[in-house]
Amino acid sequence: MNDMSRRHFLKSNAAATAGLAFTAIGTRPTSVRAENSRTVRIGIVGIGGRGNSLMQNLLLMKGVEIRALCDLRPEKVAAAQNAVVKAGGSKPEGYAKDEYTFEQMMDRDDLDAVIIATYWQWHAPMAVYAMKAGKYAAVEVPAGYTLEECWDLVNTYEETGVPCMMLENWSFRRDNLAVLNMIRQGLLGKIVHCHCAHSHDCIDHWFFDGTGKDRWPARYLIEHNRDQYPTHQMGPVISWMDINCGDRLDYVTSTATGCFGINDMFERRFGKDHPGAKRKYAQGDIVTSVIKTKLGKTIVSNYDMQLPRPYDNRWLIQGTRGLYNEQREAVYLLDKSPKYHQWEPFAPYQEKYEHSWWKEGAQGGHGGTDYIELEQFVKAVRNRTQTAIDVYDSVAMSVIGPLSEQSISSGSVPVKVPDFTRGKWKSRKPTFAIEA
């Protein structure tokens, strides 16, 4: 598994087994650690832009101590250490030796949880190591890049009982949670269909920098043709459609356009002789995936990160009694909307069905979603309960990536989605964002 040290795995697994008593599928694992207290002790791996942003949110919280920081770049670790001290905390221990130094950090016995905000190829291996070391794992998106990695996450959780939560912040958006409350109160009737997208032009700042040099995600555009970023689309959809709790994803069919936008961007900005303008990229500009669930519902999901366009998620959720459209900021509800077959504003419904997580306001990154998702993660660690997003939902969102690649490479054929719950989806009840 990604060159991970088996010796360290055995050591860590022994530590986890001795130190924790969890129920793998349950919603309330319990700890036998005598030192468990209200203070949650956290280590962070990856102190780049995303990792630093998550750390800043954690520094706003009471009862949280950042004990350790790890990154390949010593200067990033030093800057983060200074930020923690400036915020009034004790200086965390720094780790910056090599790619496997995170193992040393995670083997510490004074950490309750780790935040993983590294390059994609390290997400699953690090989360697996954290669980085997007995630490709650909060891992950035996607939790797993390959099908094998998704199974590694599930298997490790079931072996150790230690929770793993993917940090899909769009699951915690204010509007999406209000829509979830509306669905659960029956306003849309029986859910039938959903559309979602990650439409975010990232080609000139995230995949490549402003001078045309490759950034770390560029390799994925060269090597793969798939939905590279499925979790932002699927985040709210998993809970809206009760996936893994009464229904599950059955199969996916994906189709990609050709690759035109990347070369055009390089030619437009740097000239037709620039290497980036001549290079061949595997990734199509737009990927459309159609997903069918076991109960006959459908999801259309778009990847669109390489062509010029304003940011847009294009969420639409439709049932037998009405629908919500995020683009229009509108709803239409049968026998409730004022005019027949005409949209009405969503804003009054947002206020009426506000989720309790948002009623006291929010702070931090991405309009408050980052703070709320971390707040819920910290709460689970403190109480030794299951995380808001569990490992099954984490991999259900992530696996659309590798399955879409398999479908595209085989001529857009349907590809079965594995049952990561091993049949438990039939009896599991919804737990995400349940109101008291």
Strand content: 15-25%
Largest beta-sheet characterization: 9 strands, mixed
Contiguous helical run count: 16
Tell me the span between the first and last alpha carbons. Answer: 41 Å
In total, the number of domains comes to 2
Instruction: Report the CATH C-level class of the largest domain.
Output: Alpha Beta
Round the mean pLDDT to the nearest integer and report it: 92
Structural class computed from helices and strand pairing: alpha/beta
What name goes with the CATH superfamily of the largest domain? Answer: Dihydrodipicolinate Reductase, domain 2
Kindly report the spatial arrangement of strands forming the biggest sheet. Answer: 16-15-14-13-9-12-11-10-17
Regions with little confidence, pLDDT below 50 for 5+ residues: 1-36
At the fold tier of CATH, the topology name of the largest domain is: Dihydrodipicolinate Reductase, domain 2
Tell me the helix content. 25-40%
| Rg value | 22 Å
Q: Kindly state the number of beta strands.
A: 17
- What is the correct CATH architecture of the largest domain? 2-Layer Sandwich
